[in-house]
Design goal:
The protein is an alpha+beta fold and 69 residues long. The chain has one helix spanning 34-44, and strands at residues 15-20, 27-32, 52-57, 60-65.
């Protein structure tokens, strides 16, 4: 199996989508440029219906979606 080695240019902002499951550890599900993570944000919504998702750049939270109540 080939493992992907991501490359993030040092002169570009890095955006990350974090998944905070109801039970378990927080983990990232996407990272990259604004354009890539913006597309991923729309694509992952149905894959994590019961988890809290956070899209951030550094400490700045751009969007957040919580689980349904």
């Amino acid at each position: 199996m080939r493992i992907h080695e991501p490359y993030f240019p040092p002169d570009r902002a890095l955006f990350i989508i974090w998944c905070n499951p109801r039970f378990g550890q927080r983990h990232s599900i996407a990272a990259g440029t604004f354009e890539a993570v913006h597309a991923a944000w729309e694509a992952v919504q149905d894959h994590y219906p019961n988890d809290r998702l956070t899209w951030q750049q550094g400490a700045r939270i751009l969007q957040e979606r919580g689980p349904p109540l």
